[in-house]
Write a structure and sequence with these properties.
Length: 192
């Protein structure tokens, strides 16, 4: 019964498809249409490419393009270990990433970004349940990634001063630049 209904529905669908294709192609004829003759004297394909129609932008005296972006995340971690204080809810981390970029009128720019987090689980469960070393390593952190000034001194000389993190893309499993930007393995299995 199942095979018959499948075959029957395929046959019905194929006839409906054929009718809709014929309707869609109804305006296209097999007879060739007349090619329109170009009556213009100058039919060079490359005409107009040598004309300079570009407009130059003028720099204003004030600074421009000021931008601050960021993201706020919450992360909760639950453990089935059963050994206190690392049982049940083990982490309640709030993270803030801020990125600031300022472009100056002379094509120089300043860029900085940083990430900060605070794990509230130490306040909820009581700091006395954790060692000082553990609290120092996991409770909070502020990390400055980039802080640099860059621009052109001359047409063929650029300058960048400050701290820059080298990033060549993103991969969660293969880290080619581990030597330059090592993984945060304080909590194995957690993405930094």
């Amino acid at each position: 019964m199942y095979k018959r209904s499948t075959v029957l529905s395929l046959l019905l669908l194929s006839t409906m498809y054929a009718q809709s294709v014929d309707e869609d192609l109804a305006g296209f004829e097999d007879t060739p249409t007349q090619i329109k003759q170009n009556t213009q004297k100058n039919t060079n394909v490359m005409d107009g490419f040598d004309e300079d129609n570009t407009q130059k932008m003028t720099d204003s005296d004030e600074s421009e393009d000021l931008g601050l972006t960021g993201k706020f995340t919450e992360q909760a971690t639950y453990s089935y270990n059963g050994k206190k204080p690392h049982d049940e809810l083990t982490s309640l981390k709030s993270s803030l990433f801020l990125d600031y970029e300022h472009k100056f009128h002379n094509n120089w720019r300043f860029k900085t970004n940083a990430k900060a987090y605070y794990d509230a689980i130490y306040d909820i469960r009581g700091e006395e349940n954790y060692s000082k070393d553990e609290r120092d390593a996991f409770q909070s952190e502020v990390e400055l990634y980039d802080a640099y000034l860059e621009g052109s001194l001359r047409e063929n000389l650029d300058l960048k001063l400050g701290r820059q993190v080298v990033v060549w893309g993103r991969s969660d499993t293969i880290r080619i630049t581990d030597v330059l930007n090592p993984l945060d393995n304080r909590r194995p299995g957690m993405v930094d």
